[in-house]
């Protein structure tokens, strides 16, 4: 609070009301309402300088500078609207962000190999992990409800792992001869709570923003909201304004198909919820991917 008050004083803001907003603070002052959020280790203020050069200013006005411990932005209140429409409006803004910041970089096979090896190592780790888990479960005389739930669905997990292993090889064959790769500014923290619609539109919570492949914004969004919304429609809406390259789409499908590691450190009830969510994600992902593979076979 002492640092916050010092920052308020620096910008000649006289506060009269404080409110907690998740990890941020909403402070009403004599000059209006502002959001104060502590900077994370990965915070990169130069991203905003770059966005300005690309004529992208769809974020609340920032009044702090790079030396401050807090990012201070003007508070913007979102209007009530159907969540499905809000999601599509956010996708429109994300495609604008990606279009305005698209650039190509020279890459070589080592760059692709790094992506390949990171994903491959994760695939093999998950495969070994689930082999050990199911071996332990099947050795028991009586299974707990969560263990039984996993045992009933373990084939779905191994099927997803095998799909990822196979498609990763195909992706590497497809990409290894290419010497240019497409990059964009990623918001890198996409979720519905980070989009504001009033008379304008804004993305907030840019503390994880970075430059990388465009699919990572879609991947993060899917991991957050994949079971909440019609992701087939979301992806189709995105690609109307920013079509993915074939190799980008394949890499996205690999990433969203990879099962999460199920942690065995919760109550039995929470374990059942976690496993059910994992299985639901695997079935949902199959539904998202299947139209693309049907088209490939025609």
User: What percentage of residues falls in helices of 4 or more residues?
Assistant: 40-55%
Number of strands: 9
Query: Helix and strand string, N-terminal first?
Result: HEEEHEHEHHEEEEHHHH
Counting structural domains, the number is: 2
* Low-confidence runs: none
Mean pLDDT: 93
Sheet with the most strands? 4 strands, antiparallel
Q: What would you report as the Rg, rounded to the nearest angstrom?
A: 22 Å
How many individual helices?
A: 9
CATH architecture of the largest domain: Alpha-Beta Complex
What does it look like?
With 298 residues, the chain is of the alpha+beta class. The protein folds into two domains: 2-75, Phosphorylase Kinase, domain 1; 100-297, Aminoglycoside phosphotransferase (APH), C-terminal lobe (Aminoglycoside 3'-phosphotransferase, Chain: A, domain 2). Helix content is 54%, strand content 15%. The protein has helices at 2-10, 46-53, 83-101, 109-138, 145-175, 215-225, 231-241, 246-257, 268-297; strands at 15-21, 24-29, 32-38, 70-74, 103-106, 180-186, 195-197, 201-203, 210-212. The strands form three sheets. Strands 1-2-3-4 form a four-stranded antiparallel beta sheet, with helices on one face. The longest helix has 31 residues, at 145-175. The radius of gyration is 22 Å and the shape is globular. The termini are far apart. The mean pLDDT is 93.
């Amino acid at each position: 609070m002492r640092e916050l008050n010092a920052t308020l004083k620096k910008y000649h803001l006289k506060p009269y009301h404080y409110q907690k907003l998740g990890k941020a603070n909403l402070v009403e002052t004599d000059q209006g309402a502002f959001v104060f959020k502590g900077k994370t280790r990965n915070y990169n203020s130069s991203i905003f300088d770059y966005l300005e050069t690309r004529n992208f200013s769809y974020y609340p006005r920032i009044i702090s500078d790079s030396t401050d411990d807090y990012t201070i932005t003007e508070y913007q209140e979102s209007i009530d609207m159907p969540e499905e429409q809000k999601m599509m409006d956010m996708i429109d803004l994300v495609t604008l962000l990606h279009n305005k910041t698209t650039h190509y970089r020279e890459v070589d096979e080592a760059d692709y190999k790094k992506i390949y090896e990171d994903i491959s190592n994760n695939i093999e780790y998950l495969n070994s992990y689930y082999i050990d888990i199911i071996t332990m479960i099947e050795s028991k005389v009586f299974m707990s409800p969560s263990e039984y739930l996993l045992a009933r669905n373990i084939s779905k997990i191994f099927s997803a792992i095998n799909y990822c292993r196979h498609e990763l090889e195909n992706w590497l064959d497809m990409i290894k001869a290419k010497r240019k790769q497409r990059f964009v500014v990623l918001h890198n923290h996409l979720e519905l709570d980070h989009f504001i619609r009033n008379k304008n539109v804004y993305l907030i919570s840019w503390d994880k923003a970075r430059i990388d492949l465009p699919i990572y914004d879609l991947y993060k969004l899917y991991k957050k909201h994949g079971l909440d919304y019609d992701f087939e429609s979301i992806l189709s809406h995105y690609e109307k304004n920013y079509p993915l390259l074939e190799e980008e789409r394949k890499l996205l499908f690999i990433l969203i198909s990879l099962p999460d590691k199920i942690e065995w450190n919760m109550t039995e009830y929470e374990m059942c919820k976690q496993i059910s969510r994992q299985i639901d994600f695997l079935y949902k992902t199959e539904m998202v991917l299947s139209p693309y593979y049907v088209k490939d076979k025609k």
